[in-house]
Amino acid sequence: MTDIDMNIAETLSLQYIQYQCANRVGYITLNRPEKRNALNYQVVTELKKAFDYAENDDDCKVIVLKAAGAVFCAGADLEYLQQLQQNTFQENMEDSTHLMQLFYQIYTLKKVVIAQVHGHAIAGGCGLATVCDFAYTIPSAKFGYTEVKIGFIPAIVKIFLLRKIGESKAKELLLTGDLISAERAQAIGLINEVVAEDELAQRVDELAQRLCTQNSGQSMETTKEMIARVQELPLRDALEYAAEKNAFARSTEDCQRGIQSFLDKQPLTW
Q1: Burial of 41: CB neighbours in 10 Å, binned 0-12, 13-18, 19+
Q2: Exposed, middle or buried: residue 110 (CB in 10 Å: 0-12, 13-18, 19+)?
Q3: Within the chain, what is the greatest distance between any pair of CA atoms?
Q4: By the 8 A CB rule, do 233 and 87 touch?
């Protein structure tokens, strides 16, 4: 990490997560490879801090979530799971809410989040990929929610998974607990694209840069917000909400700049 990155890590008290920003792309990296980037309370805390920082970083327009080591994220840390068995219901409720807040934070973040999944994404790790706006991976990566195999349940992530891939395919993943290939993950809509391992970082960066230079950040923020919101509204309410957003967007500086650029046939770099 650079000195600036080290200062950010120290400011946010990051031990297992790294953050750096380059060319308007904020990179949040799970950095616990010796534990296969497994999740525990501290890792979740640090992820929340990093995403909050990136969301408010004026130099950052698009965020990439990636990981160090061979595995993207293996889910919950085994030692952590053993510890949870000794917790009271209230302690477990607080811990469960902590994870829920992370998933909701990523899903509703103002900036686009791309998951760069270079290895297996299991249980909570698959959940991280699920709540990102885009997810790219390599042919050898495996995906799945294995909770039912150990008597647990994929409770929180199913809310987001149902939205992403629908009930039938979600049941296939959640009730069997089976791992699926990257190819299958793409086929059911869990993953956007499968690319060669040596091309993954470049492909993700190409998408991030395209979003940075070709799209209005304000427009992407509003569109992402609306996608999350309209699904919970009755049809008529959703349409009225959409019409209101449509009318408001017309008066924004970004829209005025974009329309003028289109009329003048002049390219616009955001």
Answers
A1: middle
A2: middle
A3: 66
A4: no
Helices 89-108 and 157-165 pack at an angle, to 10 degrees, of: 30
221 neighbors 180 (Cβ within 8 angstroms): no
Contact (CB, 8 A) for 145 and 174? yes
Q: Enter the pTM of the model.
A: 0.94
Catalytic residue IDs: 147
Quote the DSSP letter at residue 123.
T
- For the chain, 270 residues long, give each residue's pLDDT as a single digit of tens: 666 666 787 888 899 999 999 999 999 999 999 999 999 999 999 999 999 999 999 999 999 999 999 999 999 998 888 888 899 999 999 999 999 999 999 999 999 999 999 999 999 999 999 999 999 999 999 999 999 999 999 999 999 999 999 999 999 999 999 999 999 999 999 999 999 999 999 999 999 999 999 999 999 999 999 999 999 999 999 999 999 999 999 999 999 999 999 998 888 889
* Positive/negative CA dihedral, 256, 257, 260, 265: negative
